[in-house]
């Protein structure tokens, strides 16, 4: 992972990746997420999918009010990417959550893990089909956006999605 990308994320820039399915993924640091969402004209628009990407599993406790014990095992032993919907949430900055369902994923390896780990903070991942992202033209013109090819960073675009209740009850969505 190039050091310039980490610097760009720290300075408030957005990484844009065109996925194999034609959708667009936007990645930005949690610290500047609200400003990025506002400057890209996305406030009030609901993306197809939104998640918080973490490099360390322990970071989850900052955002999950009632963290079920089974979550540790599920995330640690999952071999495939697993994004989990938790309730209730806490410490999510205003203006960051665009969807009612905000997922969390512990990224364990690869370039994406290295990027998040080196950044030292969670990364917000928003995914939308091109025709649903009205801000696409603004994105093309913005100097805050850095284009990456799908082969430059692996997002594991189709994670397993599950809902995990505080009492340990769960439901898979796909």
Q: How would you describe this structure to a colleague?
A:
Its EC number is 2.7.7.87. Keywords: Nucleotidyltransferase, Transferase. This is L-threonylcarbamoyladenylate synthase. GO terms for molecular function: L-threonylcarbamoyladenylate synthase. The chain has 174 residues and is of the alpha/beta class. The protein has one domain: Alpha-Beta Complex (DHBP synthase), CATH 3.90.870.10. Helices cover 25% and strands 26% of the residues. The protein contains six helices and nine strands, in the order αββαβααββαβαβββ. The chain has helices at 3-10, 33-39, 60-63, 70-77, 110-119, 136-141, and strands at 14-18, 23-29, 49-54, 82-86, 103-106, 123-129, 145-148, 160-164, 170-172. A nine-stranded mixed β-sheet has the order 7-1-2-6-3-5-4-8-9. Helix 1 packs across helix 5. The longest helix is centred in the middle third of the chain and has 10 residues, at 110-119. It is globular, with a radius of gyration of 15 Å. The mean pLDDT is 82.
């Amino acid at each position: 992972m190039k050091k310039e990308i980490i610097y760009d994320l720290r300075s408030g820039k957005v990484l844009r990746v065109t996925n194999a399915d034609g959708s667009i993924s936007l990645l930005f640091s949690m610290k500047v997420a609200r400003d990025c969402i506002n400057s890209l004209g996305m406030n009030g628009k609901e993306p197809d999918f939104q998640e918080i990407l973490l490099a360390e599993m322990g970071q989850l406790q900052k955002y999950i009010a009632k963290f079920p014990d089974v979550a540790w095992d599920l995330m640690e032993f999952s071999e495939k990417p697993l994004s989990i919907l938790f309730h209730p949430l806490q410490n999510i900055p205003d203006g960051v959550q665009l969807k009612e369902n905000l997922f969390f994923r512990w990224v364990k390896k690869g370039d994406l893990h290295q990027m998040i780990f080196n950044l030292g903070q969670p990364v917000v991942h928003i995914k939308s089909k091109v025709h649903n992202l009205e801000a696409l033209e603004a994105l093309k013109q913005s100097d805050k956006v850095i284009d990456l090819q799908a082969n430059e960073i692996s997002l594991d675009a189709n994670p397993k999605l599950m809902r995990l209740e505080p009492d340990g009850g769960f439901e898979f969505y796909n």
